[in-house]
């Protein structure tokens, strides 16, 4: 059951990165010591602030599940690599920003909230 959630996250979050995959090189690993600018991230841009409550469960899932495997850490690194481009793209298009938030992120947050007991330590 645990593997289904990361797969779902990768599939859904992949929708955020498709427009800019051609612009990015896939990084080898996520470096937890590196400072990433969450204000430039697509998810924070979609919600209008890096302090949105919905982002907390996404961060928790990243830290507790995604970063525990090399595939998950690679996806997180890829997300941080392409996210500024996606954030810029959606920041200038309110309709696209709302679509990303309501069609991709809100359902993902809902799934993570319902299944939190399965993937939390």
Number of domains: 1
Structural class: mainly alpha
- How many separate helices? 6
The N- to C-terminal Cα distance equals 14 Å
- Report mean pLDDT, rounded to a whole number: 76
- Bin the helical content: 55-70%
| Extended strand count | 0
**Unreliably modeled segments:** 15-36
- Note the main sheet: none
Strand content: under 5%
The outline comes out as globular
Secondary-structure element order, as H and E? HHHHHH
Write down the Rg: 13 Å
List the helices and strands and how they pair.
Elements: H1 4-17, H2 42-47, H3 53-64, H4 70-91, H5 94-114, H6 116-119
Helix pairs in contact: 1-4, 1-5, 3-5
Descriptive overview:
The structure is a single chain. The protein is mainly alpha-helical and 121 residues long. It has one domain (4-22, 34-119). It is 65% helix and 0% strand. The chain is built from six helices and no strands. Helix 1 runs parallel beside helix 4, helix 1 (4-17) runs antiparallel to helix 5 and helix 3 (53-64) packs across helix 5 (94-114). It is globular, with a radius of gyration of 13 Å. The two termini are 14 Å apart. Mean pLDDT is 76; it is low at 15-36.
What keywords describe this structure?
single chain, 121 residues, mainly alpha, 6 helices, globular
Outline of the structure:
The protein is mainly α and 121 residues long. Helices cover 65% and strands 0% of the residues.
